[in-house]
Design goal:
alpha+beta; 9-stranded mixed beta sheet; 34 strands; globular
């Protein structure tokens, strides 16, 4: 049946009807009708979702390939819609979008897009009169969490409404360009939809103990590598984010929405969030517009009788989320959270029977109200965008040194440039981290540029807060996260030279083809990848565990502990292969390699020293399954597999006791409880370590290893809180004791292999209050401890701050012929904490050397 025949009742395929269980039984209709005011009918030339997909939205969960198929079908049928693709996922699924506007606007869409970009690139050239003639640009994104699926369903119905609606829809599209991003996380959605559709019978089951309601680990929330994509809008380290944000920035919308789900006992949330938790870099005009737009959501939800709330949860603090990143880009970001049925229906205590279709309807209603608000407030929104860029200038700059930690520094600059930040080569010598950096050996990021506010928000350290509770992290300071040496200067006059598009470089080969060996410094980010390349080819690589000097290129040079010694003769591979691999590593891994004609060194050990071990190739197993944190496991998996080309076997924790661990030299246990590992399996792991294995444990994995007695590390107790709080204040008081993701200073022992390439200090990210006591009475080594003044950026309560100094952050212990490395922080946090992921790599690749 065509929707037009329903006389302006926009069912829009949000009719959730249970299929018949038998021919004699009629279907039980669960239709939820939603009429859009001002829409008289629908163009029969535009296909409904049901006509393309063969089922009514709400009857089952739509698969990713079906989403793409429907968007393409609507674009082929409607003169209001253009389809596009902005990238691929790690599993090869296309990231689809639709650009929707009036046919007249689409005919000059390039002109509109260019004019919109002028608001940020040349805001002073756009007059109020021009603003009055410009359409608003509205980005609407759905289901960044793959199992929060109603958003994507609503996007398809919303697309139909915009493409086929007659009457008021056409008038709205005269004044707006709508960017529909219907499915931000296809890989996660595919994982979820396969489970939901595959575990459903002929009749929907509302019992939350039913299999359809209970996804297995890791659930569908995350992407292929188990990352929360809604934390990557600012760093953009992941494939989906890079594709989306490159497209987003070609438009720079004035409104950007983010449709989610939450627990089924809630109702519906829209922003504003908690006022005290707004980021201070967000202008008041943006907050005012958020509140004014909320009136439109409230009116539409009131009209259909849906309950909702705002201002009492969530926040606008961390700029890495889809609802907050727009706020530092001249736009208004809006979060929607719908109470989730997950399955087709679920019985709740607070809301009774909650259906999938009901959730789709609310997401659809607020999609419609967003567009209505954007058109009504169009000139204010456009003015807000223009003035954000016109008035947000500053004379200062950040200077990123390239003479040390070069690749990490370049990765930081690349992250900024993905947010269209302008970066320049330094035109003169400048001081960074207490040293003089020559001209051309630093990057300059001025604040006097369109993205100056974003630069400030990404780079600044924060130590004072208006609220002690955080929905997400309390800090994300990029210089500390990327481990780069960065200086802030008050005035950038004459400092910025030529603009530069930052790419990884700096690899060099000194001395040509080696006769005896190559030396590869370990302080470049991708040096572990070079080691892996060599070992994959069978080359026997030695590790210098003490400083020495050697002559390369006719010059005597000093080399630190951690330098790789790569022999040319009797190396395990032909000499030509060794030469070729080193040249490739210089070009692709950006390492420094030095060719030697002799193994005899002027100072320190000679290259064949019996004290310098031959490193064994890493054969890595990573525990991934129930008991492990999907986030922690995914971070380690992505780092090793995606960035360093390391083969990684994923093992279920419950299988550890019966797995053949002798196939592996390294076992990684990231954050998690590891409850499925019983005493017999624990004994098996200990025996494997004693036989020569290296156990690398981070956060919860480290606590498991300590409880199992593999590393004799004692927890540091927390003093009891004897304060007599009022009942209404208890939750906030307890929440204030959480460590909401902060950055701390750790002193390292630079002579230990786990700290090679780092020096004596490192900034670590820690998101929990658990701590370890230092020292084991000679049974182990405290490679890193929190300093006496540990807080570099972020919030920590006074009680926790008292506990932090001297606590152990990085421990190592030899156990039999193997060893255990403990990292009590998140070394590869959200893929952008490149400043400490090298410590995890040291444990994996050098763990056999201590």
């Amino acid at each position: 049946m065509r929707l037009a025949s329903l006389l302006a009742v926009l069912v829009l395929s949000v009719a959730a009807a249970q299929p018949q269980v038998a021919a004699a039984q009629p279907a039980v209709p669960l239709a939820i009708d939603y009429a859009v005011e001002g829409t008289a009918s629908y163009d029969p030339a535009v296909p409904t979702p049901g006509e393309v997909l063969g089922f009514t939205i709400g009857e089952r969960h739509t698969r990713p390939e079906e989403v793409v198929r429907y968007v393409e079908a609507v674009a082929a049928a409607s003169p209001r819609v253009e389809v596009g693709f902005h990238g691929e996922t790690y599993e090869g699924r296309r990231l689809v979008h639709a650009v929707v506007s009036s046919p007249a606007n689409l005919a000059r869409i390039g002109e509109i897009q260019a004019q919109n970009v002028r608001l940020s690139e040349a805001p002073g050239s756009v007059s109020d009169a021009e603003l009055a003639r410009m359409p608003a640009v509205v980005y609407q994104g759905y289901s960044v969490h793959g199992d929060e699926a109603t958003g994507t369903e609503a996007a398809l119905v919303y697309l139909y409404h915009l493409a086929a609606g007659q009457g008021g829809v056409a008038e709205l599209l005269d004044d707006a360009v709508v960017l529909i991003d219907p499915m931000l996380n296809p890989d996660g959605r595919d994982r979820f939809v396969d489970w939901a559709n595959g575990n459903r019978g002929g009749v929907a089951v509302a019992d939350d103990q039913d299999r359809e309601h209970n996804q297995p680990w890791p659930r569908g929330r995350t992407n292929h590598y188990l990352f929360d994509l809604n934390r990557d809008w600012l760093p953009t380290e992941l494939a989906e984010s890079r594709g989306r944000m490159a497209w987003w920035h070609t438009w720079r919308p004035q409104v950007s929405t983010d449709h989610h789900e939450m627990g089924g006992e809630a109702t519906f949330f829209f922003q504003p969030g908690i006022p005290s938790r707004n980021n201070p870099n967000t202008p008041q005009t943006t907050l005012d517009l958020t509140a004014d737009i909320a009136d439109y959501h409230a009116a539409e939800l009131d009209r259909i009788g849906s309950l909702y709330y705002s201002r009492e949860s969530f926040d606008d603090f961390y700029y890495g989320k889809g609802s907050t990143y727009p706020d530092v880009n001249g736009a208004v970001g809006i979060l929607f959270e719908q109470a989730s049925s997950r399955a087709l229906e679920v019985e709740t205590e607070q809301n009774g029977l909650l259906t999938y279709a009901f959730g789709v309807r609310n997401q659809l209603a607020t999609s419609v109200s967003t567009l209505r608000a954007a058109v009504a407030l169009r000139e204010r929104l456009l003015r807000n965008a223009r003035d954000f860029y016109r008035d947000g200038l500053d004379d200062g700059a950040y200077v990123i040194a390239l003479d040390r930690r070069r690749t990490r520094a370049q990765a930081l600059a690349q992250a900024l440039q993905r947010s269209r930040v302008r970066v320049y080569r330094s035109a003169r010598e400048v001081e960074v981290a207490g040293r003089r950096v020559p001209a051309g050996e630093a990057l300059v990021v001025p604040l006097d540029q369109p993205q100056g506010r974003l630069v400030r928000a990404a780079m600044e350290r924060t130590l004072e807060y208006g609220d002690s509770l955080f929905y997400d992290v309390s800090t994300w300071t990029f210089p500390l996260a990327y481990g780069a040496d960065v200086a802030e200067v008050d005035r950038a006059g004459g400092l910025a030279g030529e603009p530069v598009e930052v790419a990884f470089d700096g690899g060099r080969l000194v001395g040509g083809a080696a006769r005896t060996a190559y030396l590869v410094r370990w302080d470049r980010y991708f040096a572990p990848r070079t080691l892996r390349r060599l070992q994959d080819a069978g080359v026997r690589v030695r590790l210098a565990t003490s400083p020495f000097s050697a002559a390369a290129g006719g010059v005597a040079r000093d080399f630190e502990a951690g330098t790789l010694v790569v022999p040319v003769q009797n190396a395990g591979a032909p000499a030509d292969s060794v030469h070729a691999i080193v040249r490739r590593a210089v070009a692709e891994d950006h390492v420094e390699a030095f060719a030697l004609a002799s193994g005899y060194t002027p100072t320190g050990n000679d290259l064949g020293s019996r004290e310098w071990p031959v490193l064994r190739p890493a054969r890595v197993a990573l525990l991934a399954g129930p008991g492990a944190s999907p986030y922690g496991a995914g971070e380690a998996w992505h780092l090793l597999s995606e960035r360093f080309g390391q083969r990684v076997s994923l093992l279920e924790p419950e299988d550890v006791g019966r797995a053949d661990l002798d196939r592996y030299t390294v076992l990684v246990m990231a954050d998690g409880s590891y409850a499925p590992i019983d005493s017999a399996a624990t004994a098996r792991v200990e025996a494997w370590v004693r036989d020569g294995g290296t156990l690398v444990a981070t956060e919860g994995g480290a606590r498991w290893a300590a409880r199992a007695g593999l590393l004799g590390a004692e927890p540091r107790p927390a003093p009891p809180d004897s304060t007599d709080y009022l009942y209404a204040d208890r939750d906030a008081a307890r929440g204030a004791q959480a460590v909401g993701g902060s950055i701390f200073d750790v002193a390292l022992d630079p002579t230990h292999p786990l700290a090679y390439g780092y020096g004596d200090r490192v900034a670590v990210f820690k998101g929990d209050a658990a701590l370890f006591e230092p020292g084991e009475g000679g049974a182990g080594v405290d490679v890193g401890v929190f300093t006496d003044e540990p807080v570099l950026s972020g919030y920590i309560s006074g009680r926790n701050l008292e506990r932090l100094p001297g606590a152990a952050a990085l421990k190592a212990r030899r156990v039999g012929r193997g060893g255990v490395a403990l990292l009590d922080f998140d070394p590869a946090f959200r893929a952008f904490w490149r400043g400490t992921d090298g410590l995890l790599l040291n444990a994996v690749y050098l763990g056999g050397a201590f």
